[in-house]
User: Fold these one by one.
Assistant:
Number 1:
Amino acid sequence: MEREMGALPRPSISAEPGTVIPLGRPVTFQCRGPVGVYAFRLEREDRAKYNDSYNVFRLGPSESGARFHIDSVSEGNAGLYRCIYYKPPGWSEHSDFLELLVKGEDVTWALPQSQLNPRACPQVPGPCPSCYPLSVSTL
């Protein structure tokens, strides 16, 4: 990739609705740069995975941007992202990294009401694990 070192301002990156997204929910990355950008690229940390967008829109008199949408995040989407853009005659510097965290939602397993009643549990010392709802939390 050919770059004009220092000639183009660094892009910025943000995520909507934020950088901590519940599993299965959508997220949109927005890359911003100067007016006249031909294409934005959203890269993963290792640069082996990226998406290009030629759908560049104007944000103001001196700024343009592009959006990259993920409909339903998975644990595989978690990680570091950054933007770069192409404005002839070359590529910009990279933006700072943005870290996307994918948080699993708490899941409560619904047990029959009879199992929630302590009298339905066998009489053994200590709590009966099958008599209380379970909570599973993942990150």
Number 2:
Amino acid sequence: MGRTVVAEGIETQEQCDFLAAARCELAQGYLFSKPLEERKAFRILHEIKGHGVWPVESQPQLAKLGS
């Protein structure tokens, strides 16, 4: 349909795997990052400006998404 869709509320690796199998390219949720205070979010956005990779404490299997 030519639409960009973001899967929201991803909390488990199993949900991430399901979305990867469905060829979902974008996802967000607690698996990737807990809610941040505004100041911290802007600090991180400034830090990743050059490379665009959001830091995560434990790396979920993101490589599968969109493959």
Number 3:
Amino acid sequence: LLPLVSPVLLFALLTIWVILSPCDILAKQTRLFLWMVGVVFSNVICRVIICQMSDTRSEAFHWLLFPLALVVYAAVTGLLGKNEEMALTIFTTLATAAHIHYGVCVSKMSQITKISFRKYMADILLLKTCCCAAWGSFASCLEKSVPLSVCGCKCQDLF
């Protein structure tokens, strides 16, 4: 249930902002508001997906929700006044830049991961073709669940 906290909180904050907005932000800046909703939701969900793919625990509260909560609070209480549209523009710019930055970082990390994934797959293929004297003739260390370092095999390099 932890990955659901941020999206639920996001939509709660956005619903509060739309309903209680003094200057009717959704009517005045429909495209910008929907762009911001899409970008922030995409960022939250992309982080959840990456956490699931990498078997890491996702964060309960996405960091973009804190400035959003401040903007919503300031807008709903009337602190922003006529500057609500400017606050939406600034927050949308921040969210878009953060999402692009995250995408670039994930792309760079995936290139590193591809290299280590290729090495892992190469090790698996080498284990499958390993001829191990300790376990009998032409026995596969992988079938015996013996690591290559313990096995002491002379393996043929397929690449």
Number 4:
Amino acid sequence: MPTDVSQVEAAAATRALVARDERPTAIAYDSDVAALAGVTVLTEARLGELVATTSPSLVGVREGVA
């Protein structure tokens, strides 16, 4: 579900995804801001136990590195 990288749009997209009859098995966010908004929505919807994170956290990818 395409959005800009704002908290508002990421939260709205997450709400729309979890409101579906068939919930997604995964949600990937393209920024830390969007991910935080999504985690907040999932926690507020009492779905926080479904949140998985990576360790160490991936905060950026640098392309073109030899």
